[in-house]
DNA sequence: TAAAATTAAGCAAACGTTTGTTTAATTGGT
DNA sequence: ACCAATTAAACAAACGTTTGCTTAATTTTA
């Protein structure tokens, strides 16, 4: 139904080869008059290029695929904006596919949709692949890079914040304000990210002469619910004066749960959040946070795909931004 | 570099045709022994199908493209989940591309990435196309459907809430609670959506015997900033006791601005939000909202693509969910 | 003015699949 | 034991492009 290059060729009275060349703006191989005719014919027929066919023969593609793990968190929007802008600057297109957060089968399907078609590179946002799916990804000849997640295996290309430092600086922010009894909420205990944040947290405590207590840390999956649960576990009488939350969502969870427990933030409890998305400024009081540079992660991700020679594990800087949830004692 | 069907054929000692058939699980045309050999060879070579090539010959695709306008609002996540689930149930894949919210050129590029490759259908989330870009979309032979947006032109297929009803019910919620002086904040005055919400708002007022006042409506683009600006424009002494906000984000804007103005919600000012995303329950006090059924919009969208015979303008139901921002007078 | 150089356009192969048609081999029925 | 019917596999065309090579026509150069 749709017009092809051959239809144009017929209408303009030239060969498909010539049509291809003028439509691709090749510099030579045809005269101005032919160009006119071809352009006119293409317009008249409402021609749309079949990119799949073109990619098939050229064996290259200009699309970057982004795999994201969940629709929930919205820090991904900043990364995607970074990807989008940088990709556009290089004449690349971006498509996004959702993989389930845990379901390996959904993960596999998302990966396949991406691998089984010609893409220039794959960016994985905060995705933890099962070993089988990782093998699948590596089996494809496509360059890839993990974003906002790091691994113990140093060979996997990734761009993320230094999680140890994140944990350290979040904790230190509270220590500097005079807090001694500090909780760590809704950080998972399984992943690289969680373990390093925990280590950073404990180091900061020790460097300040505070001995970490086991019941100060309430692990969780970084979600709003996890934040609430962690805070509920602490209860109103834990003696904690500050909490580091694993994400903005988690921080809002501890914030709201604190309120339910009759605790006022920051008067009775100080909170430092991790991420620093726009959410921090939407809630009351505004969340003091260790802010990650998500936009740059995205930008660095596409650059990494373009020049795979670079070092594989990159780190983007963080900074703490002081808002309203830390009270200095 | 990547293994093709021919490589498998060579390794297994059969023809490419046979390989294609066993890999596609065709029922006949080959024996169990050959099937074994082919499977083994495919596995050994780490074969990945080239979907683009397959789509080229079959002239059909099983991917749905979703065009979203901005990374900001997160109501889209619910629609996308609806799309995703329904698509998966039909064996379809989903890819997402971002179009700029206003920039026609970005819009055009996003549209082209989608049109110029074989997709089964296109879903446009809350996208307002320029006339040229609309023509572009219609020129493609691909079925499409707009989601969460409606048009004056009744021929454009769309699935959305009844915006008049949204405006009406939001306003009525406040009227029922005894409010008489009610504002409408951060609803735009240009689009179909904005005009109909405004009309619904005014009808509700009139039906209750209240004469709408011009300075009760402060138009805006549904954003957090627009909410803040609208509330700032009202000021602390407007006499308004209730405000209908154009979106959850806008509602949070009026909420926070109210606080800055020294107004307590809902004691001094009641708020009804429009959308009903998870944001409503994250802020304090939790936002009473006219909630849209975004998940169903997404689901209905993919069904619409599959059966284009259906009526083109569909409406999904809304419901008001009472939370904590409406005070009964 | 003839040969060389340049320009303009067409030919045809290739990319990796799918699938209708053909051919070869095996089985079954009588 | 012969022919029909069935099964198994290969052949080859097609999908819509791109691009190296060839050919034809025109212009330049000496």
TrEMBL record, chains A, B:
SUPFAM superfamilies, alphabetized: lambda repressor-like DNA-binding domains (SSF47413), Periplasmic binding protein-like I (SSF53822)
InterPro entries for this protein: HTH_LacI, LacI/GalR-like_sensor, Lambda_DNA-bd_dom_sf, Peripla_BP_I
Keyword entries, A-Z: DNA-binding, Repressor, Transcription, Transcription regulation
Transmembrane helix recorded as keyword: no
Residues of the HTH lacI-type domain: 3-58
SMART domains: HTH_LACI
Pfam families: LacI (PF00356), Peripla_BP_3 (PF13377)
CDD domains according to UniProt: HTH_LacI (cd01392)
Molecular function GO terms recorded: DNA binding
Segment forming the signal sequence: none
Keyword Ribosomal protein carried by entry: no
Name this protein carries in UniProt: LacI family DNA-binding transcriptional regulator
